[in-house]
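Title: Prediction job returns without error message
Component: structure pipeline
Severity: low
Priority: P3
Assignee: unassigned

Description:
Job completed but the reporter wants confirmation the result is attached to the right record. Sequence as submitted:
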Amino acid sequence: MRRIYFIILLALVSFTILTSCHKDEVLIDDTTMPESTTEFYEGGCEMRFAIPYVPRNPISFFNINVTLYPIDNMIEPWSLTASIMVVNTYCYVTMNVLYVDMSSSSLPDGHYLFSMRDNQEYARYILEIVDSKVVNVIEPYDYQFKDISGDGSKLSPFIINTSSDFKEFLAAVHSDPIHGVGLYFEQGADITLGSVDRGVQNVVFAGNYNGAGHTINNITYDAIDETCSKVGLFSELTNGAEVTNLNLQGIFNNINSKSDVKSMCGVLAGSVSGLVKVSNCKINTTISTSNNTYCGGLIGHIASGDITIDDIFIENVNITDSASSTGGIVGHISGGKVNISNITNTVHSLSSHQEYNLLLRGKVDVGGVVGYVDNATVDINNVEFIHVVDGENVASKRINATQSGAGGIIGCTRGSIVSVGNST
């Protein structure tokens, strides 16, 4: 009898301890999501909010690594540890966020992609944050692929193996209102793409694409009898985009401008803005234009933002008949902060070197790296171009402007801060 009383007493004590430990933490009832709350401290804040997600793991309280990707603001993503409490059909998230600018008193208002991955599942939600408080939780576009493996997380990226996979990827990004922010894609093999599908040509990309050393061949676009504005593998790279370890080969013919809109063309992207990184890429492209356009071997136009371009090998860049702003890497920069480094068309061996083709010809503002820089801050370092020319023979000139503004690095600048270092 004493043993039975002791067991009952022990159970009562255990229940009291468990309930008292969590009485201040149980902020979710059985049917509704609680209101978000935020506590501020110097240099950061502790945010608490609910998401409509229950992991397969039956544990009701655990810590997990999460990432916060800014959608509207040019800020690097945060990698954080969050506490997750599961109550019925919801998770209550508690996470500490340190401000980027330690003098700030709040997180910048805007939309953020919140992602977390437990051992079995990857969850993503869009958070609308005002005054460092989550005011809305939105479910993002659901990527459903036929043959593409992976879940889009950094640990398990979507794997693209064929041209069909790539076109399916383009179509999905085209349908996604936030353009793939926070998602990871990796190329698993060389791809021969073929003619750009007009239906998915206007693709804005803000995710992470790792070519893994593979090539996308035969990117073609022939604009005869039509007008186009932003032409490339992607129409635009925007805030959050990162492209790495990718080889590109493309041909773009008769790129035209409308009377009131400039056309922009590059083998990777027509236009770039926001916080964007491009690195370790090899480019092989031929571009012909018929009127006033911005053409670059890699990118046609940088509009604004904080852009990093690093480690680009020019296997072949041939741009002819351009009317304005022609560059081996970027055609036209019209704002923002741009860092360009480690650019070459040359492979060195112990006894010799092999230079590859760089041929740029236009009317005005033609540069080996950038055609025209306007009201921007540009830092260019470690550029090596080797050209074999035949005296003053015009036909042999690698970088040539028929009217004005030709340069080995930059064709022309206006109202900008430009520095060039360690370049030949």
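Comment from assignee: result matches the submitted record. The chain has a mean pLDDT of 83.
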